[in-house]
Amino acid sequence: MKSIFYPVKLFEIKRQKPPRTLVLGGTGKTGRRVVQSLWDGEHSVRIGSRQADPAFDWQDSAGWDKCLDGVTQVYVNFAPDLAMPMARPAITAFTEMAHRKGVRKLVLLSGRGEEEALACEQIVRFSGMDWTIVRSAWFNQNFSEGAFTGMVQDGQIALPVGGTCEPFVDVHDVADVVTAALSEEGHEGKVYETTGPRLLSFEQIVEELSGALGRTISFADIPHEAFLEGIQGMGMPPEMVWLLEYLFATVMDGRNEQIGYGVQEALGRPPRDFRDYARLTALTGVWDAAQAFNLVSV
Ligand SMILES: NC(=O)c1ccc[n+]([C@@H]2O[C@H](COP(=O)([O-])OP(=O)(O)OC[C@H]3O[C@@H](n4cnc5c(N)ncnc54)[C@H](OP(=O)(O)O)[C@@H]3O)[C@@H](O)[C@H]2O)c1
User: Which three-class secondary structure string do you get for 146-160?
Assistant: First the structure.
C-alpha cells in the first residue's frame, strides 16, 4: 500500500457537531476507517498524520499542541508499535499534554501479548481521562495493506512461526469497535480483546488465500536466522528489523493462541471471518502483482 487517497484534501473535516476527535494514524489501516465512519456520522474529525496540516509526528512533540487544539477525544494509534522503547515516553508525554489541553476521552489501540503495550495501557488508564482499550490480534489486512502483501503476490508466505496459530482480525471490526467507543456512551473503562472468530495456522491462511484467488499460495515455516537475514537484506530501517524480529521471536510464541470476545462485547455481533476478507480482497486485484500499488479498500 503506497498511499491513501481521499476524494478531496480533507486532513481536517470541520463539522459543527461536537466532540472533535483527533484520529492518530488517521491514514493507516484502522485509522482511515475510523475517520470514514466518524465522518459518515457527521462527527468533527482531525486526522493525525505526518502528512496532515497540522502535522502529527510521534517523534516530534513540537507539533502535538496544535493538533490537540479544540480536541475532546483521541484515538491513540501509536506508530510503528507500542512494543518499541520509544513508545512509553511518547505515550506518557502525549497523554499529559492531552489532559492539560482538555481532552476527556482516549481510545487506545494496543497489541496482545506485548509487555511493553501493557505498560502503555497503564499510562492511559491512569491518565485522568476516560479510556477504552482495544487490544487487538494481528490484522487480516497485513496480507493486503501491510508487511505480507508482497508475499501473497509472489505466491509464497515464508515466515518463522513454528506452527503457532493466531486469531487474525479484520481491521473493519477493529475500526468499528474504536468508532463505537468514540461515538457512544458505555465503553468507558472497558478492555476489548478484538480477534477474529477462529484461531488460524499459516497453513490455513494460505488455504483460504488460495481458495479465494484460485491459484496456489504456499507457506514455508523458515528459521528465525533466515528471516532476519532476509529482512536485513531488504534495506529496512534497523528499528523495523528489530520490531519484526521481536514480533516473530517473542509475541508469536503461542501466548496469543486464544480467541477474544471484544467485537461481540462492544458491537453485539460476531467478528468477520478470514474467509470473507480473503474473498472480498481477492476481487480488488491487490494480490495481482501488476496491481501491486493500487489502493484497496474493502
Ligand atoms: N498490524 C497489526 O497486525 C496490528 C495488530 C495489533 C495492533 N497493531 C497496532 O496498530 C498500530 C498501527 O500499526 P499498523 O501496522 O496497522 O500501521 P497503520 O495504522 O496501517 O499505519 C501507521 C499509521 O501511523 C502513521 N504514522 C507512521 N509513523 C508515524 C509517526 N512517526 N508519527 C505519527 N504518525 C505516524 C501513518 O501515517 P503517516 O505515514 O501519514 O504519518 C499511518 O497512518 C501499532 O501501534 C500496532 O502496534 C497492529
Answer: CCCHHHHHHCEEEEC
Q: Ligand 1 centre from 214 Cα, in Å? A: 31
Q: How far apart are CA 15 and CA 10, in angstroms?
A: 12
Helix (H) or strand (E) holding 75: strand 73-76
User: CA torsion sign, 65 to 40 to 281 to 264?
Assistant: positive
- Does ligand 1 have an atom closer than 6 angstroms to the CB of 146? yes
The string of pLDDT tens digits covering residues 122-169 is: 999 999 999 999 999 999 999 999 999 999 999 999 999 999 999 999
Q: Kindly state whether residue 277 falls inside one of the protein's structural domains.
A: no
Into how many domains does the chain fold?
1
The finding on whether 53 has its CB within 6 A of some atom of ligand 1 is no
CATH code for the domain in which residue 97 is found? 3.40.50.720
Domain that holds residue 31: 6-136
